[in-house]
Amino acid sequence: MQTRYVRFAALGDSTTYGIGDPVPGGPGTAWRGWARLLADAMGTAYDVSFCNLAVSGATARCVRERQLDEALAHRPDLASLVVGINDTMRSTWDPARLHEDLMTTAGALHDGGALLLTARFHDHARVFGVPSVLGRPLMARIEVVNEVYDLVHATYGGLRVDLAACPEVLDRTFWSVDRLHPSELGHRLFARRFAELLGGEGLAFEPPSAAPAGGLDPSWRRNVAWMLTEGAPWMGRRARDLGPWAVRAAWAEAH
């Protein structure tokens, strides 16, 4: 029986948008993702109003400038804020601006009455399989992002999932073909972790199943097509953007 009306706004980048968890949709493929999985599971026990404002490629500044106002207009009881990895992969990396954007966004959501859902990020270089000479500088940036989320949590509270503490993160099956986005299993893991935390806050419902369901079966043809049309071009743009930084980082590491 539905006993409460819950408003849930999801803000962030491609992970929250749902890339890596394809489902049938319209004439082709749509994306579901952890936030939708969580909202659907919550909807078995509550009346849920869910809006996913996440955009693929979004940075913390994009979330603040293009997603925050619409999220606040939704008057959310829950608001997820999972963004920052795209910031680390750009030549425009600016820790001070990242701090300002995340704290401003988190503060506005908290002041609007939302319980924040955030994350601490794992070592992406270990999942990518990049050489340690490049992995360590990347992880140093990710740790800066994590430090800001630590401050967000200390200041505004809420619930957070520490991905580095999830052993499944290093399991290849929990990642899509590009190793950047979670697979359906990865999205389900993230949703289940948040469901468990929400249960501790009195929002009790059956967590999303850990087993695949409702999505498209794995297909090497679809994976290849996605890598050719989306994955490879993205990697090319990042390589051109971060090439000089990567060379400098490797040189400094070697000397």
TrEMBL record:
The lineage of its organism: unclassified sequences, metagenomes, ecological metagenomes. CDD domains: SGNH_hydrolase_like_1. Pfam families: Lipase_GDSL_2. Signal peptide: none annotated. This is Unannotated protein. It comes from freshwater metagenome. Residues 10-189 form the SGNH hydrolase-type esterase domain. Gene3D superfamilies: SGNH hydrolase. InterPro entries: GDSL_Rv0518-like, SGNH_hydro, SGNH_hydro_sf.
